[in-house]
Amino acid sequence: MKPSELRALTDDQLRQKLDELRNQVRDLRFAAALGQLRDTAAIRKARKDIARILTILSERERARLAEQGLLPPPKLTRRERRKRREQLAQQQRKG
């Protein structure tokens, strides 16, 4: 599934989809062990979808915690640090 499709789902729907995918991976691995699996890429696709869902759930949880002020501020990117440094240098020249 595409991340945009997953983001449109609620947390409960994502958790349900996660359970379905975990069961699917288990079944696919079992079929592969028995030599009955034709599409071996299906395991990889399901695992990638699981990772996408877990990432979205994690992002949502971090956003909730950030709104409550329970998380430290995110680190600045190199571009943001450079911009701040330039602004401070300009203020020091002026002042």
Describe the structure.
The longest helix is centred in the middle third of the chain and has 27 residues. The protein has one domain. The chain contains four helices and no strands. The protein is elongated. Helix content is 77%, strand content 0%. It is mainly α and 95 residues long. Helix 2 packs antiparallel against helix 3. The model has no long low-confidence stretch (mean pLDDT 93).
Largest sheet: none
Radius of gyration: 22 Å
Domain count: the total is 1
Share in β-strands: under 5%
**Which class best fits the helix and strand makeup?**
mainly alpha
* Number of H- or I-type helical stretches: 4
Based on CA inertia axes, which overall geometry fits?
elongated
Query: What is the number of strand segments?
Result: 0
Task: Measure the end-to-end span.
Answer: 55 Å
Element-level helix/strand string: HHHH
Average per-residue pLDDT, rounded, comes to 93
Helix fraction by DSSP (H/I, runs of at least 4): over 70%
Enumerate the spans where pLDDT stays under 50 for 5 or more consecutive residues: none
